Amino acid sequence: MAGLRTVGAIALTLAVLAPLGASKSHLVAGSITAMAATFAIKEKQWRQQAVTLALGLVVALAAMSLGALLSTHVVAGDLFFLALIFAAVYSRRFGDRGTALGLIGFQVYFVSLFVRAGLSGLPGLCGTLVVAFVCSALVRFVLVPETPERVLRRLRSAFRARLAQLVAAQIELLDAGPDRVEKALEEVRRHTARLHESAMMIQGRLEEGTRDSATAAHVQRRIADAEIAAERLGVLILTARSAERADTLTLHLPHAPVPAASDRLRAQHDTTATLRRDLEALRLLVLRPVAEDRRTAVAHVRNRLLGYRDEDNLPRASAAVQDVFRGIGETARSVLGLRLAIDGPQDESDDTPSTTRSREELDAEDVAIARAEEDEGDTQDHTGWKRPTTRTAVQVSVGSALAIVGGEFLSSQRWYWAVLTCWVVFLNTASTGEILVKGYRRLLGTVLGVVAGALLASLVGSHTWTAFGLVLLFIFAMFFTAPLSYALMSFFVTAMLGLLYTLLNTYSTGVLVLRIEETALGAACGVIAAALVLPVNTDRRTDELLATVLKRLGEVTGAAVDQLSGGPATELLDKARDLDTALDDLRSSTQPLTHPITPLRARRETVRYLVALLETCAYHARSLAATAELLPYSKTVAADPRLKGAGRRIAHNIDVLVARVEDDDTEGVAETGPSLASMLESDRPGLPRHDRVTDRVLRHLQRLDEGVIGLARPLGVRVSTPAGTASRGSAA
By the number of CB atoms within 10 A of the CB, which of 230, 410, 455, 731 ranks highest? Predict the structure, then answer.
């Protein structure tokens, strides 16, 4: 959608300027300005977008005027450009509007350099800017309208599609033979990760895309339920086809060993066929429009799947296979809850008692969600030089100064390409390692783009509108590939620039080779500035984020266990999403350590293992939070005060890990010992044995306990053994 909107704005700008007899330089200036005015604005509400667009026009006119005025004053122009770069980056601290205005100011000043704006042509260029902004507004608000509600509706559809894809991958895993199981498991991992990405995207749009905070909370809960149930279903299927209970880590660690296969599914061929049929029915139920729920066949399928939650018609099979049927029932319930939260009340005439019970549970949970207290969140903020926007603004300014000096030595006419690269490599990066990786990817994409640009320029020749058509195509490809590959996006940017140079009659192979040299220079200047000026090295950055993830993990686990033990209700899913966000930040920050070209291969594998362990722990923490939020309105889940004692060891071990990450000299010891289930039984022997739901909670706690102990060893934390001895963990 971002690509369509940007291409639409550029096309409309060209359609208006061309009949007015605009020159090629004005057409290029209008195209780049329309692109900047469209993609820079990220605010959600139309009113806010309109205000930012109006302010952006003022900033753009000022930037173009100053660019034309200073075009003959080299030193003053360079100094102003550096001041503008600092202000553009520093303005990010003021939110989406500050970020947009800073980006527009930088891009338009860059346009003035690109088209060599002068005072004589300033009125025409200012008129071009006005046309570009008006066209951008028309596309944004009229031709390709974008509202938070529409975005959220598309994201929900995408989530259902991702969920159906995951179920399909799980069916493939169920059927996979020995020679295909690794590939099938890898597909399950990939689709599980994509489902999580969709859930996080929806999370970022809920407040603006729903009627009120209560509706947002309901949708958030149902999305989380569906994600947890689907991921758990994958673990259950893997366990059913394995000789022992599958470790959740297997679903998160790339290229993890496949558990040894068993013959329990082959020995129960009829049950396996029923299982495959019900998984396919679940996939179709996910994809069916709500209107089709009223059909008898669809309602029958839904009722049958929900019946597995009450042990209705549960096939005679091994416990592991029966758990898969129960998992199908739980996933079907999450699909029902998702539809109720998104589409409202539905026809209940064909409900069975099991379906009615599921609806009653969902209604009770909605009441609990509505009554939940708001999470206060983390209000901590850095000040002074520790503020990210201030530090980055200084770094970019220093890097740009180096790029200007070095760029002038390469070319007095094209030096600004080095500055642009230096600017870009700092976007959405937070450490020296991230900047190095981004600079490498941009250089790679630029080299390949130069080759493509040279070929296209020779083919296009003097065909102006053919070149503009290809420019529009490449701009769309640039936006479409941006989330997938930064190198690929850079390829399309450079190929597009080759066509723009052709339009301006300044194309030559030497110009595109110079583009490579300036890009390499800009990337190098960015890395130098990041390494020498207020540096944030990758190790320190990842340590900070690792500590944050561990703290969030402890908060979610502690609050969930407390509520499951009979404590007061809290907003657990908000805490769980905070954990997911922190984990996503950590995953991004470790990219320099896990990149294929890193020379520290052993360290790369350790980092991957740590992240996979944290993802596993987060899954079990989310599952505990989802179960805890069923209290006190569920008829199947009851508080068990014994659980509080079972969670103490996990809380202690997480505190030890946090202390170790924040202070290398700490000597805390992580505790291990008997299983949490045995601790629970011995804690209060007079109480009755726990039920199946408590068993499930204990399994999550046990896996979480094992995951935390797994983190202790590579972090160098000592682990006490049941015999009382202690050994130092090895940071492999």
Answer: 230
| Per-residue confidence (pLDDT) for residue 262, from 0 to 100 | 76
Which pairing describes strands 718-720 and 669-671: parallel, antiparallel, or unpaired?
parallel
Which tokens in the block code for residue 473? 């195509």
pTM: predicted TM-score of the whole model, two decimal places: 0.72
C-alpha 143: how far from chain center: 29
Task: Count CB atoms within 10 A of the CB of residue 76.
Answer: 12
Rounded-to-integer distance, Cα 123 and Cα 121, Å: 6
251-267: string of b/e by CB count within 10 Å (b at 16+)? bbbeebebbeebebbee
CA-based torsion, 616, 618, 622, 628: positive or negative: positive
The full DSSP string for 105-158 is HHHHHHHHHHTT--GGGHHHHHHHHHHHHHHHHHIIIIIS---HHHHHHHHHHH
3-state secondary structure 1-41: CHHHHHHHHHHHHHHHHHHHCCCHHHHHHHHHHHHHHHHCC
Torsion of CA 583, 585, 588, 594, to 10 degrees: -50
pLDDT digits (tens, 9 = 90+) for 440-471: 777 888 888 877 877 787 777 667 788 888 88
The number of CA neighbours under 13 Å toward the Cβ of 115 is 29
Residue 554 corresponds to which tokens in the numbers above? 């402890």
State the DSSP code for 719. Answer: E
Tokens describing residue 519: 């890009």
Helix (H, G, I), strand (E, B) or coil at 720: strand
